[in-house]
Amino acid sequence: MMTGETFLSVAVQAAMGMLLVGMVMVLFRLAKGPGAADRVIAMDLLSVLVVAFLVVLSIHTRKTSYMDVAIAYACIAFLGTIALVRFIHRASVQKQLRQKQKTPARPLPDHSGEKNHD
Amino acid sequence: MIEYISGLLVIIGSFFCLVASVGLIRLPDVLTRMHAATKAGSLGAGLLVTAHALLYPQLGISLRAVTIVALLLFTAPVAAHLIGRTAYRSGEALSDRTWIDELKGQNNALDDHPPSD
Amino acid sequence: MPLFILNIFLAAVLMVLTGSGSISVFFLGFALGYVILWVTSPLYPQTRYFKKLPKVLSLVLYFLKELLVSNLRVLWEVITPRHISRPGIIGVPLSARTDLEIFMVANLLSLTPGTLSVDLSEDRKILFVHVMFLEDAQAAKAGIKNGLEKRVLEVMQP
Fold first, then answer.
1. Do C83 and B97 touch (CB under 8 A)?
2. Which of C98, C114, C115 is nearest to C152 (CA)?
3. CB contact under 8 A, B98 and C89
4. How many Å apart are CA C113 and CA B8, to the nearest integer?
5. pLDDT tens digit string along A29-49?
6. Are A33 and A42 in contact (CB under 8 A)?
């Protein structure tokens, strides 16, 4: 019969293994994902997995200050997801506008005539 | 005793996280992937945080745990809604198992003006 | 809702009295404080606190039950080799009117796996929901309206 301490440490190690396998799968989707939205979802899930891993790490090392790291990470990851979604939204709006107006993509600004200020 | 309960919670929570990642690999299109990713992931992380709060019942640490759960539960649906709406409106393909789509032809054109910011 | 603050204050008093700063003592103090306030309820004639808190609790419990059950369905869909889901997007007519009500309904729907709010119609009367296991569109609409939305509106509306 296992004592509580041993059971907990075994459980924590199994959890760390499962979370790492999950992160590898998410990275696979991040690399392969057919569309940009798939990649954003993968980034989102990756940040949730990192938060989960930080909590498990906090149980494992008995240092509760990892929880603060997890809080900060959860905040920043949300902002990152929102920024990426705005970016996709803007790109697809411009694509639809181009299809609607049947005009070619906006040409890159021509800097060849400008003087170099450095 | 408390170690057994929280050990069990740790295993179940990380299993849900693993299921979320497998779902991200296996499910056919963006919206169904989001079902697995955002919610199973949040539930798994929530269970892990609960296990941590059971192990460390001091008020300061429990409040941190509550903060993490609240952050995850508030941000997950907002992010999911944004991603889903943008993906649908920018014309990501739905899987061919989708058999009813009442949103089609409603207003799934993007805004006429690109966002200025 | 001053009674709610009073209740939290009673819980804090119990924590100070016992001298332990654990979260379980806080919940015990909250429950005891609720009982105390309920016993002395003739003192507060026009409060809705005693009607509202059970409704909030029933919403939370219903939400947790939905969360677990539908997470298990998604889990089954993911780990079995054959796909059994038949996803679809349905438009649910909303009874919620204000911003906060629509926000609560859409977010709680998004949080339960199996349903995901995708879009809101221009006149804010129809919420488009992506459902993962859709057998009968009318039944799913009625389920969302009578299950989650009704409970949310009971809590939000006086």
1. yes
2. C98
3. yes
4. 22
5. 889 878 788 888 898 899 999
6. yes
Neighbours of chain A (3+ CB pairs under 8 A): B
Alpha helices (H) in chain B, listed in sequence order: 2-26, 30-34, 41-55, 59-89
pLDDT per residue of chain B (117 residues) written in tens, 0 to 9: 888 888 888 999 999 899 889 888 888 888 888 888 888 888 888 899 989 888 887 878 888 888 888 888 888 888 888 888 888 877 766 766 666 766 666 655 555 444 444
Structure tokens at B100: 């009813």
Q: 3-class secondary structure for chain C?
A: CHHHHHHHHHHHHHHHHHCCCEHHHHHHHHHHHHHHHHHCHHHCCCCCHHHHHHHHHHHHHHHHHHHHHHHHHHHHHHHCCCCCCECEEEEEECCCCCHHHHHHHHHHHHHCCCEEEEEECCCCCEEEEEECECCCHHHHHHHHHHHHHHHHHHHHCC
pLDDT at B115: 45
The residue with tokens 């169904």 is: B32
- Both tokens of C71, joined, read 């997470």
Residue among B22, B58, B95 minimizing CB distance to C21 = B58
* C95 touches C145 (CB < 8 A): yes
Structure tokens at C134: 């859709």
Give contacts of B 57-76 with A, CB under 8 A: 61, 64-65, 67-68, 71-72, 75-76
**Interval C118-158: pLDDT, tens:** 888 777 778 888 887 777 777 878 888 887 778 778 777 66
Q: ipTM of the assembly?
A: 0.83
C116 and B73: CB-CB below 8 Å?
no
